[in-house]
Amino acid sequence: MPEYDVDQLLEEWRINGLVVFESLIPEETVDKIREAWVPLRQAGVREQGPEPVRGTGRYNVRVPFHRPFVDPDIFEHPSLVAFLEGALGEDYVWNHFDSNIPIETCRDYQQWHRDTQIPFPGLMTPSYTVGVKFPLVDTDEQNGSIEVLPGTQFVSDTDLQSDLDRVFGKGDARRGHYSSIRLNLKKGSLWIHDARIFHRGTPNLSDVPRDELCMAMSRPWLFNKWQYEHTEPHFPRDLWESLSDHAKQVLRRQRVKDR
């Protein structure tokens, strides 16, 4: 099992707004998850049609809180827990579970965006919600790896985020002097980003989907619309009873099925 310098990662996090845990998940675990995921992704793609809200060929499909997707070996990894406690506090919660999928017909850049709104415009605050993401395949500049602008979690001027494509340039027509990076990750790596950081998906020029799952974690006071609207019990009772006390604390907002 790789060892991680969590203190160093938290320092990088405080400056860049993102970190990568290389090779945190065994490849055989990722392959098992992907095998179970493909039929769900295909069903989601059919349901949303050829023009989903994120653009042609770019899908967001909910991930069920079931095995093998909810895996304590991943979200309860000691280094990951220590990092999230340092970034969000010991009482952090897992809010929802979704995905980012440019399929083989996705040939356009996503718009530059954030994954959250700024609750206190003009004020700089600590992180309050993060995306904990892991690709199910190797990601590179051929199949649409994510592009990010480190440090932009500190931008609290809401007028700058109203049209980020104007600020940074649309597609590959870059504008201004900004230093972005591409997250070309190996299968089994996991990355975390402050939801305020500016980022975008890129074209998938390959002939297969680029699947990535996202566990959304936050401080407990953050209102989560999905949990408010999703009122039916959905978390399997047997899975819940198999979890550690800490895992139950992290997942305490989910609705557990009756026996």
User: How would you state the average pLDDT, rounded?
Assistant: 95
Shape summary: globular
Tally of individual domains: 1
Beta content comes to 15-25%
How many individual β-strands? 9
Q: What is the strand and helix layout of this fold?
A:
Elements: H1 6-16, E1 18-21, H2 27-48, E2 58-59, H3 72-75, H4 78-88, E3 93-102, E4 129-135, E5 146-149, H5 164-168, E6 181-183, E7 190-194, E8 198-200, E9 212-218, H6 225-229, H7 237-242, H8 245-250
Antiparallel strand pairs: 1-7, 2-3, 3-9, 4-7, 4-9, 5-6, 5-8
Helix pairs in contact: 1-4
Can you put this structure into words, describing what you see?
The chain has 259 residues and is of the alpha+beta class. The protein contains eight helices and nine strands. The strands form two sheets. It has a six-stranded antiparallel β-sheet with strand order 1-7-4-9-3-2. The protein has one domain: Sandwich (Jelly Rolls), CATH 2.60.120. Helix 1 packs across helix 4.
How would you summarize this macromolecular structure in one to three sentences?
The protein has 259 residues and is an alpha+beta fold.
